[in-house]
Design goal:
2 domains, mainly alpha, single chain, 117 residues
């Protein structure tokens, strides 16, 4: 099985499981996520890989990490945490950042807090 086919199968399975766990129909997921019903159907049938934007919309709708959609490994998550620690070590005081960068950080923090709820 090719890497793409394997990724498609994993993502398809994860979306179906998350949707089932939420008790949503495909139409409900489409409405909540802002992803078209046709795209949801193609993703669940394994006929399409989601773009990064679609992955983010689905993760936001399910209130899960993008890795829960894509099936990314824990090693990738650990790498992200290491990068975040390095960022805050170097730029710990966000007040020293440019206004646009401050907004990105604040938005990220807000999204992470919402995901924990």
């Amino acid at each position: 099985m090719s890497e793409r086919a394997n990724s498609t199968r994993i993502i398809s399975s994860n979306i179906k499981k998350l949707r089932g766990d939420a008790g949503w129909s495909q139409a409900e997921l489409a409405k909540i996520s802002g992803v078209s019903p046709a795209a949801i159907s193609l993703l669940e049938k394994g006929e399409r890989l989601p773009s990064l934007v679609v992955t983010r919309k689905l993760a936001s709708a399910f209130k899960v990490a993008e890795a829960d959609i894509t099936g990314s490994t824990k090693n990738e998550s650990n790498k992200i945490y290491s990068q975040a620690h390095a960022f805050f070590r170097d730029y710990g005081d966000i007040e020293e950042l440019e206004p646009g960068d401050k907004e990105i950080i604040r938005d990220l923090i807000t999204r992470l807090k919402e995901r924990k709820k």
